[in-house]
Amino acid sequence: MTWKVEVDEHTCIGSGMCASLMPELFALDGPVAHALSDTVAPDETALDAADSCPAMAITISDGTEVVGPRP
């Protein structure tokens, strides 16, 4: 099973929180972040990155439902 990772480039403010928490999955690209891969194995740190995004620009889904950010 893998999770799908998306960063909304129109919402992202480039805080870098995601890249700091999980540099193997997120990187800053100019003023915004992007995912280095479209998918990730289920990982608590990926959810932490989505949770910590101040702009709520990261969405992680398991294919059928959103698992991050968590409420």
From TrEMBL:
Where's the 4Fe-4S ferredoxin-type domain?
Answer: 3-31
Judging by the UniProt lineage, the source's domain of life is Bacteria
- Classification via PANTHER family: FERREDOXIN (PTHR36923)
One Pfam family, please name it.
Answer: Fer4_13
Q: What is this protein called?
A: Ferredoxin
Instruction: Name the InterPro entries on file.
Output: 3Fe4S_ferredoxin (IPR001080), 4Fe4S_Fe-S-bd (IPR017896), Fe-S_cluster_ET (IPR051269)
Alphabetized, the UniProt keywords read:
3Fe-4S, Electron transport, Iron, Iron-sulfur, Metal-binding, Transport
Q: Which cofactor does it need?
A: [3Fe-4S] cluster
Protein species of origin: Amycolatopsis rhabdoformis
The free-text function statement in the UniProt record for this protein reads:
Ferredoxins are iron-sulfur proteins that transfer electrons in a wide variety of metabolic reactions.
